[in-house]
Amino acid sequence: MSEELPVSTASPTLPQTETSTLNGAEILVECLIRHDVDFVFAYPGGASMPLHQALLKGRERLRTILPRHEQGGAFAAQGVARTTGKAGVCMATSGPGATNLVTSIADAKLDSVPMVAITGQVPQSVIGSDAFQETPMVEVSRAITKHHYMITDIHDVARIVKEAFTIATTGRPGPVLIDFPKDVQLATLEADEIDFDPPMNLPGYHPVTHGPHPDQVRQILAAIRHSKRPILYVGGGCITSGASEELTKFAKKTGIPVTMTVMGLGSFPAEDPQCLHMLGMHGTVYANRAINEADLLLAFGVRFDDRVTGKLDEFAQHGKIIHVDIDASEIHKNKEAHIPIVADLKKTLQALNAMVEDEAIPDVSDWHSQIDEWKQQYPLKFRDSSDEILQQYAIERLWQLVRERDPYVAVGVGQHQMWSAQFFRFNKPRHWLSSSGLGTMGFGLPAAMGVAAEFPNELVIDIDGDGSFQMNIQELATLRCENLPVKILLLNNQHLGMVTQWEDRFMDGRRAHTYLGPVDKPEALGQGDGTHGSDTYPDFVAIAKGYGIPAEQVRDKSEYDAAVKRMVETDGPYLLEVICPYQEHVLPMIPSGKTVRDIITE
User: In this protein, which residues make up the domain named Thiamine pyrophosphate enzyme central (predicted)?
Assistant: First the structure.
């Protein structure tokens, strides 16, 4: 089995040591190096101190970055994984350190992100005795990992690390936990006893690596040939499989319009005329209408998430569905497929491109005319403001100013996340980082931190909201101390904007703890006049400067371009706070559980 599963291994040379023995922690660190790990985001504690001593010894070959919170470190590991496809690595001590990784592990599981999370554990002799900082991490994370281990024998360290990286990165990627008791970290082996490339023991693990059967390819092409209104509905699986180039080639060859999930953004060029951009709850009207009217739905690397489908039994009910996914459990899970195909998406598109012929391409000119009419009738838009900076304007203008640099953009969760998906155009995969399945506030800053570690010479931007930003604001220290040049565009409306929007739309505007300022302000109960005073809370510029990061605040549209230019041109990290109105709503919007017929555009 081990020969069938690809895994990266480094040269067989042993690490430089003063003795002929290695302890368990040193073996694990050497294994990380041999699996081409460049960064470990690790926060130390009592149960992981041997691991950190081993990381110190290996610092010339493996960079350890100290986050200021374990969750921040795990999201930074995701930043590496989401932009490279390699497994990101994070590490924490036992107990609270380990449980602080749980949210990011769950996030990685829902978004199919390859990650290896390593946690220190109390010695085996006291496991189960409620020892100091003991938490049963395997049990805690069982349902939110792709797989999980506790190392109980030093002889198993190299095998478990090899298996962890293999499982995390093959098939449908996901997070793997390695729980490492302190006594095993400190146990020793003679160097000549250690096999750093041992055989794996994964008898039940058979990830899909194959492409489709030729008959399935012919079925897809036959369905396309007989369609008049086909549409490509593309998700994160396209990016994970590295299929974006093949997808673009197929779409251009067939003329089929393309719409993407929030996870799929960048898999097809946003500025291409065939692109319908994002679909779903806050997707474009034309994408949602096209899905509703299509007679053939080519669902590639998607999971028919409820934020996309709305009322499930009325989603794409007029057309035939072809569903291609590497994970068999996704087939028929939410929506019945007429042609279900369990296969690697890149290989599927390669086969389609190889077999498609001119006579198999339908005439979709009328279909494009209809879509163009919808595009003109229902464009993404926002109101014109005189002096104030609307969030939509700030994001779209930022894109216009930096598009030539092809930046990496991470976001928090909320209105700014959806506006970024709408108004920042991505023409390449792996440049957009969003906590999509779990919707984790606090994702943006540390995720960008990981990207900046991996790509220090590229432009990396965190577009954040004041609510999300404060969830992991401590990582400003990591940016400065580790010299990570993240640019932060902080859209501050003093509210939890998305929840406020739902209050406005569905709860008669009653404010229930969505104002982020002092409770004695009238805005706390929704009684403000809609303006922000000069004393917005907190003082983010002062906070950033306290961490040693240059920062400024802008409120007037006329100041914005120059401020963005200063942010981008300043060496190192930078925070630009933009004061925005809190009455803005993310539109279009399909209310939860509703259909395209219920879409809100005003």
Answer: 217-352
395 residue type, one letter: I
CATH number for region 21-193: 3.40.50.970
Spatial separation of the C-alpha atoms in residues 449 and 9, rounded to whole Å = 26
| pLDDT for residue 18 | 52
pLDDT value, residue 8 = 46
Residue 374 burial (CB count, 10 A): 18
Query: What pLDDT, on the 0 to 100 scale, is given for residue 5?
Result: 52
> At residue 477, what are phi and psi to the nearest 5 degrees?
-65, -40
Instruction: Provide the residue ranges of all domains of the chain, joining segments of one domain with +.
Output: 21-193, 214-367, 391-579
The predicted pLDDT at position 597 comes to: 92
Amino acid at 503: E
- From the list 217, 220, 316, 230, the residue with the least C-alpha distance to 274 is 230
Residue 100, CA distances (Å) to 96, 159, 176 in order: 6, 26, 15
Determine contact, residues 46/94, Cβ cutoff 8 Å. Answer: yes
Q: Order of strands, edge to edge, in the sheet holding 63-65?
A: 63-65, 39-42, 88-92, 115-121, 175-181, 147-150
Smallest Cα–Cα separation from 18: which of 57, 59, 61? 57
Residue ranges in the chain modelled with pLDDT below 50:
1-4, 6-17
For residue 230, give the H/E element and its range.
strand 230-234
How many angstroms separate the CA atoms of 306 and 321, rounded? Answer: 17
Our CA angle for 64, 67, 72, nearest 5°, is 125
Q: According to the model, what pLDDT value does residue 360 have? A: 80
What pLDDT is recorded for position 1?
36
CB of 319 within 8 A of CB of 297? yes
H or E, element range at 32: helix 24-34
Name beta bridge partners: 574: 487
Tens-place pLDDT, residues 207-253: 999 999 999 999 999 999 999 999 999 999 999 999 999 999 999 99
pLDDT for the residue 12: 44
Cβ–Cβ < 8 Å for 149, 176: yes
| Predicted local confidence at residue 19, as pLDDT | 55
What amino acid positions are annotated as catalytic residues? 70, 132-133, 182, 498
- HSE-CB at 288 with a 13 A cutoff on CA atoms is 28
Architecture of domain 214-367: 3-Layer(aba) Sandwich (3.40)
Q: Specify the CATH number for 391-579; select among 3.40.50.970, 3.40.50.10380, 3.30.70.120, 3.30.830.10.
A: 3.40.50.970
What three-state secondary structure class fits 448? helix
> DSSP string of 63-118?
EEE--SSHHHHHHHHHHHHHHHSSPEEEEE-STHHHHTTHHHHHHHHHTT--EEEE
175-181 vs 147-150, strand pairing mode: parallel
Comparing C-alpha atoms, which of 423, 474, 428 is closest to residue 73? 474
Asked if residue 475 lies in contact with residue 490, where contact means CB atoms within 8 angstroms, the answer is: no
Place of tokens 């404060």: 470
pTM of this prediction exceeds 0.85 = yes
**181, β-bridge pairs:** 121
